Amino acid sequence: MNDSVNPSADSSTNALPESGGSRHRAIRSFALRQGRFSVAQRKALDSLWPVYGLDAADAPSDFEAVFGRSAPLVAEIGFGNGETLAQLAADQPQIDFVGIEVHRPGVAQLLLRLKERELNNVRIFCADAVDILTHRIADESLSGVNLFFPDPWPKKRHHKRRLVNPEFIGLIARKLKIGGFFHAATDWEDYARQMLEVLEGCDRLENAAGKNRFSPRPAHRALTKFERRGQQLGHGVWDLIFIRRDDRQPAIACNGR
Ligand SMILES: C[S@@+](CC[C@H](N)C(=O)[O-])C[C@H]1O[C@@H](n2cnc3c(N)ncnc32)[C@H](O)[C@@H]1O
Hints:
alpha/beta
């Protein structure tokens, strides 16, 4: 039996906002895949998006009001189907997590995981992370940002679509609290080296592993579908962890910001 549903033909998925975001940027880091929803995912969108979903309206979100408590807030950008995010949230109930993903079936899958594991410390935006970081997350409000296996855009002519570039890292640095972390992982060596160069070039961030070094893989990062696929292809994996410096005095600029 085919239990999947084409999202464009399924009015019940209207619970989700359009993933493309309301603002127009010339170059985006994703090519929106339509994907298909299983029946369970479609039901999850109907019943669980109102519980865990956040809309992408303009004012910065008041996360203390959203979660009903004051706790460190960690964002995960491009969480895929939410394997790592659900695991981190289960392992760290003292932390609140905000996931940002454009792929709607992935969002539905995370909703199912949250319900199954009875997790209440996660909320989700279904929109472009650049728009959400810019407009919905206050400066110096995040204790951490995770970016695991971002789309590698391996062809040279597509490198401009890679999420990690000086402007994006400048945005991340602005959103992190002093002492907050940015953790990225990739199984594409040339992207890993590009990330390292960009991150080392940001004066607001300091490499936790020491200058120009990659970090050892932390045990808390759950293995995902993309990492498993990379392993099967014989790819290595590179982790990068950078910490937001205390740059209040004297003021230091990052990418001119
Ligand atoms: C290669 S997948 C990795 C997924 C997951 N992190 C993992 O390790 O399994 C990259 C994900 O990032 C999402 N993505 C890419 N650019 C994005 C953006 N600007 N905002 C939100 N999600 C984005 C894609 O939809 C995709 O699901």
